[in-house]
Design goal:
Distance between the termini: 58 Å
Strand content: 5-15%
Oligomer: single chain
Structural class: alpha/beta
Number of helices: 22
CATH class of the largest domain: Alpha Beta
Order of helices and strands: HHHHHHHEHEHEHHEHEHEHHHHHHHHH
CATH topology of the largest domain: Rossmann fold
Number of strands: 6
Shape: globular
Helix content: 40-55%
CATH architecture of the largest domain: 3-Layer(aba) Sandwich
Strand order of the largest sheet: 1-3-4-5-2-6
Length: 463
C-alpha cells in the first residue's frame, strides 16, 4: 500500500538528511541512537555521513527509535518512516522487503506523541502539536531558505532542539560570522520543531525594520489578522506577549546584526532600535510557551545580561567539518588527500561561503588540485573572501581590530597574559578584557577573521 508523502519527499531528501532531521528532533546523541538501534556508534556516524546504510533489521530499529523518542512528526509518522526506508532503498540498492505495514501499525499503536511529550508546568501541551505544519495561514516563512541539501550540524541541531522542545527556552540565539551557516541552521531547526508550535513567523532584520513595523506584522499574523494593533512599542510588545501566552508560537528573527552599532564591542543598538532590546528582555523574563529564535553575527547586550536565565541560550555556530565540506563541494570535483582537505578547511575556518569561493578558484585556476592552490595561494584573502571578511571586520571596535592584528601575525595561540604584555600597557587591562570578552560568535569564526590579517591564530578566543 503506497502513501503520499507530503512533508518529507523521499525523492529529494537524502537518507543522511532524514536521519539527521529525525535525530535532531529527539535530542538523542549518536551513541544513544546506536544503543536503541542495535548498532554501533560508528555505524550511526556513517549513516549520517551518507557513507553506509542500515540493513532491514537496523532500519526497523532506527524507525522505532525515532518513533519512541518523538523524532517522527505527529500525524506523519507513517509518511516519514516510509520516506526513510525509500531513501535507503534508492541510495543503497539491495533486496529489502516491502514496508511492513502491520509491524508499523503495531508500533504506532504502542506509542503516541503525547506519551513522548508529557504535559507539565511551562510545557507545551500535546494538543498544540499540529498534524500538518504547512497548513495555510499557520506558517509564514518569509525569506527563510529551503533546507534541501542541508549538511551536517548534527550536534547543533540536537542542542538547539533540546533547548526549544525539552528545556522550553524562550530565547535561543545562533551566533557566528558571515557565511558560516547560521541562517540555514536556523531554517532547519525551525522547520524541524515547527509541528510543535501553533504558528511560525520568520522575518529577516537585514533591512533594519523599525520595531513597530516588525511587531505589527507579527501581531497581525499570530492573531489571524483579527486584532487592532495599538500604537507605541510598549503596548505592542504587551499585545505580542499576550498572544504568545494564548498559544505556543515560534518567532524567528534572522540577520539581527544590522540593528546593532558597528565599531563597538558592547552589542549596543543603533539609534532608534533599542526597543528590540526591550523585546528580548520581556520575552526572556515573562512566562509563556513560545520561543524567539535569533540568528546574528554578534550578540546584543541583553543576551549577556540575561545569561543567568535558564530560558535564554546562546549557541556559537562553528565551521563545517572536513567531511561536511567535502560533501558541500562534491560537485566541484576537487582533488586532494586527507591532509590537503584538512588544511583547506582549517585555513578558512570551515566557513561554507568562503569554501565555495575558494573552490571556484581551485577549479578554474589550478585544475581542481588543492595542493597546488595551497602552495601558491595559501590562506590568502581575495575576491569574495575579502568582502566577506571586510564585512565582519567592519563590525569590530578599533581595540578588537588591534587584538586581531596582534593575533594574526602570531604563529601560536596567545594567552590573555601575552595580550596584556603586548597591548595592556597602552590600553589597560580592563579595556583589553572587555575586548576579549565582548559578545563574539565563537572561536572558529574569529579564527577566520584573524586570518584576514595573518591566518595564523588557532582558537585564541577560548583562552
Amino acid at each position: 500500500m503506497s502513501l503520499a508523502i507530503s512533508a518529507v519527499d523521499a525523492t529529494t531528501e537524502p537518507f543522511q538528511g532524514l536521519v539527521l532531521r529525525f535525530r535532531g528532533r529527539t535530542a538523542l546523541t549518536q551513541r544513544q541512537v546506536a544503543a536503541r538501534s542495535n548498532a554501533s556508534s560508528r555505524s550511526v556516524q556513517a549513516w549520517e555521513a551518507g557513507i553506509s546504510y542500515p540493513g532491514t533489521d537496523n532500519l526497523q530499529a532506527l524507525i522505532a527509535c525515532f518513533m519512541e523518542a518523538g523524532g517522527l512528526a505527529h500525524g506523519r509518522e507513517r509518511a516519514e518512516a516510509e520516506a526513510l526506508r525509500s531513501a535507503a532503498q534508492a541510495e543503497s540498492p539491495r533486496h529489502r522487503p516491502p514496508f511492513d505495514t502491520e509491524w508499523f501499525a503495531e508500533l504506532l499503536a504502542r506509542h503516541s506523541v503525547a506519551e513522548a511529550m508529557p504535559t507539565g508546568a511551562g510545557q507545551i501541551s500535546p494538543t498544540a502539536v499540529l498534524t500538518n505544519d504547512r497548513a495555510p495561514g499557520l506558517r509564514d516563512w518569509g525569506d527563510a531558505p529551503d533546507v534541501l541539501g542541508f549538511l551536517g550540524r548534527a550536534d547543533e541541531l540536537r542542542v538547539a532542539t533540546r533547548w526549544m522542545l525539552h528545556e522550553h527556552c524562550r530565547v535561543v540565539a545562533l551566533l557566528g560570522m558571515g557565511g558560516i551557516g547560521k541562517t540555514m541552521l536556523a531554517s532547519r531547526v525551525a522547520r524541524d520543531v515547527a509541528p510543535v508550535y501553533a504558528r511560525v513567523y520568520w522575518r529577516s532584520a537585514r533591512n533594519a525594520p523599525p520595531l513597530l513595523e516588525w511587531l505589527g506584522g507579527a501581531i497581525s499574523f499570530l492573531a489571524g489578522h483579527s486584532l487592532l494593533r495599538p500604537e507605541g512599542e510598549t503596548a505592542r510588545i504587551q499585545q505580542l506577549l499576550d498572544l504568545l501566552r494564548t498559544q505556543p508560537c515560534l518567532l524567528v528573527l534572522d540577520n539581527l546584526e544590522p540593528l546593532l552599532q558597528e565599531g563597538t564591542h558592547r552589542g549596543t543598538y543603533r539609534e532608534g532600535y533599542s526597543g528590540y532590546g526591550t523585546l528580548l528582555r520581556v520575552l526572556a523574563e515573562s512566562e509563556h510557551q513560545s520561543c524567539l529564535l535569533i540568528a546574528s553575527r554578534e550578540a546584543p547586550t541583553e543576551l549577556t545580561e540575561l545569561g543567568g536565565y535558564v530560558s535564554v541560550r546562546k549557541l556559537a555556530v562553528g565551521g563545517l567539518t572536513v567531511m561536511d565540506a567535502q560533501a558541500l563541494l562534491s560537485d566541484r570535483h576537487l582533488r586532494g588527500g586527507e591532509r590537503e582537505w584538512t588544511r583547506l578547511v582549517d585555513r578558512y575556518g570551515g566557513n561554507g561561503l568562503a569554501l565555495k569561493v575558494v573552490a571556484e578558484s581551485v577549479l578554474q585556476v589550478f585544475g581542481g588540485e588543492i595542493a597546488s592552490f595551497l602552495q601558491q595561494v595559501g590562506g590568502g584573502a581575495f575576491g569574495g573572501i575579502r568582502r566577506l571578511l571586510d564585512a565582519q571586520l567592519e563590525r569590530l571596535s578599533p581595540l578588537e581590530r588591534s587584538v586581531l592584528a596582534y593575533l594574526g601575525v602570531e604563529r601560536e595561540p596567545a594567552t590573555f597574559a601575552q595580550l596584556v604584555a603586548e597591548l595592556g600597557s597602552r590600553i589597560g587591562r580592563g579595556a583589553l578584557l572587555e575586548a576579549v570578552e565582548a559578545p563574539k560568535p565563537g572561536a572558529p569564526a574569529h579564527r577566520a577573521v584573524a586570518g584576514a590579517v595573518g591566518w595564523q591564530v588557532r582558537d585564541c578566543w577560548s583562552r
